[in-house]
Amino acid sequence: MTQLINALGVWNTSATRHSPIEDVQGIFSGSLVAALGLYVLASAGLLTGSTAGVAFLLHYAFGVNFGLAFFLLNLPFFYLSWKRLGMAFTMKTFIAIGLTSAIADLQSRLFSISSIHPA
């Protein structure tokens, strides 16, 4: 039973190491889903919290490019993560935020959401 619980990851307290291909797949798919969520929010004219919310405020109020604002607002956090969590984590996060910013900017050119049901 213990082997089954460990295999499923339920109550597993040991860290799981991922291969580089799993890291690439996770970063890409996570960035794609996050950028899609940001695009839906922008299409509806809504806001969210954190650095994405501040980037939306800058975008709505001053017409600043959302992706660039999102990336630049995260720069101080890259420094903090480098100091506390190390270079590997920081580089993966840097790539993920950069990719999310780029995809969020490209989505409006690739497809559009003409209407969103209020419910």
Automatic annotation (TrEMBL):
Keyword Membrane attributed: yes
Topology term for the membrane: Multi-pass membrane protein
InterPro entries, sorted: UPF0750_membrane (IPR051461), YitT (IPR003740)
Main location: membrane
Pfam families the UniProt entry points to: YitT_membrane (PF02588)
Keyword annotations of the record: Cell membrane, Membrane, Transmembrane, Transmembrane helix
PANTHER family named in the record: UPF0750 MEMBRANE PROTEIN YITT, UPF0750 MEMBRANE PROTEIN YITT-RELATED
Protein name, as recorded: YitT family protein
